[in-house]
Amino acid sequence: MIENKKLTTTELVDYLGSFQGQTLTIKEMMGDLQIKEEQQRAFRMMLSRLCADGTKGIKIKTIGSKSGLYKILTNITPINTLVIPNSKPIDITFPYGIDDVSGFGFEQILEVDEGDVLVIAGDSNSAKTAWVINMLAANMDKFPCVLMGNEYARIDNQLSPKFVRRMKRMDWVNWENEAGQLKFIILPVNEDYEDWVQPGKINFIDWIDIEENLWLIGRIIKRIKHAVGNGVAIIVLQKGRGQILGRGRDWGLQMADFYVAIDPLGQYQRRLTVQKAKATKGYLDGRMWGFDIIDFGTKFHNIREIKKCSHCYGKGYTTRGDCEECNKTGYVDV
Ligand SMILES: [Zn+2]
């Protein structure tokens, strides 16, 4: 927690809400919430009050005879209707190579439903924005789309010239309708995304900036998921180089329906890894694709499935020096 600020019950309930159906030790909780030594007694009191009182929005209970281990129960709502919810799959298009028609093929394997959250985590210069703009271009004629992010617009409510140049370089895209208006909405926000998310639309959020209290990522994504209703949210997260997951790690992963991480591949290419997917027609978890971004960061190119090089085990070198099998990248085409 922030210096000298006391944890409130609402904050604790929000935090625990990200762990429904799971167990947590009191040590883990205190670590995540940065509870200081002198606050520990009060924290234990709060927890036992929550245990006794199930009306605060989350139900928890102690597990086993030793104290310190808690189960966070899954929130359930009583069902009182026979009506089947008519949530339908959403025919979303992922980025693909315009010139060589190469693609990831997620459209054929992945099931995207109303209310889903798709997360793209990558370090700087990892094609995250290229991903967002290409997906926007590929979907804005099919669905109403909203683009949120502080790097697209200036403070005077004009589009950033850099973004306009980037859009114009994508000469295969018609960004405007017959009336000369953008086919999507840009909201120049950089916080409180859950309050700006538009239900029923494809909401692109590039990107969620969070420096501390990383567990908040889970809470923010959960609120976005709730706010998006029958739409879809596509969220970009920052990722440290070499990290498997983006900022907020497991907290982001838990709430996401689809989670991909983008890393460098060799000097100029990128490698995408699927960390989590609801794949109904085949498996996706752990599969990787290599790709290029060409034409000043606008075009996907040469997307193909890759795997770890069996010669150097993904390192790009062996005891004898550079690995020639994979051209020092550590990965080879499947
Ligand atoms: Zn190799």
Helix and strand element order:
HEHHEEHEHEHEHEHEHEEEEEEE
Mean pLDDT: 89
CATH class of the largest domain: Alpha Beta
* Number of helices, where a helix is a run of at least 4 consecutive DSSP H or I residues: 9
Q: Give the distance, in angstroms, between the N- and C-terminal Cα atoms.
A: 46 Å
Layout of secondary structure:
Blueprint: H1 9-17, E1 23-25, H2 26-32, H3 40-52, E2 60-62, E3 69-72, H4 106-109, E4 117-122, H5 128-139, E5 145-148, H6 161-169, E6 185-187, H7 193-196, E7 202-208, H8 216-227, E8 232-238, H9 249-255, E9 258-265, E10 269-277, E11 288-294, E12 299-308, E13 317-318, E14 321-322, E15 331-333
Parallel strand pairs: 4-8, 4-9, 5-6, 5-7, 7-8
Antiparallel strand pairs: 1-3, 2-3, 9-10, 10-11, 11-12, 12-15, 13-14
The structure holds zinc ion (ZN).
Q: What is the compact description of this entry?
A:
The chain has nine helices and 15 strands.
Task: Describe the protein's architecture and organization.
- The strands form three sheets. This protein has a ten-stranded mixed beta sheet, with helices on both faces. The protein has a three-stranded antiparallel beta sheet with strand order 1-3-2. The chain has a two-stranded antiparallel ribbon with strand order 13-14.
- A hairpin with a 2-residue loop joins β13 (317-318) and β14.
- The chain is built from nine helices and 15 strands.
- It is of the alpha/beta class.
- The protein has two domains: 9-72, Arc Repressor Mutant, subunit A; 106-333, P-loop containing nucleotide triphosphate hydrolases (Rossmann fold, 3-Layer(aba) Sandwich), CATH 3.40.50.
- α8 runs parallel beside α9 (249-255).
- It has helices spanning 9-17, 26-32, 40-52, 106-109, 128-139, 161-169, 193-196, 216-227, 249-255; strands at residues 23-25, 60-62, 69-72, 117-122, 145-148, 185-187, 202-208, 232-238, 258-265, 269-277, 288-294, 299-308, 317-318, 321-322, 331-333.
- Residues 309, 311-312, 316, 323, 325-326, 330 line the site of zinc ion (ZN).
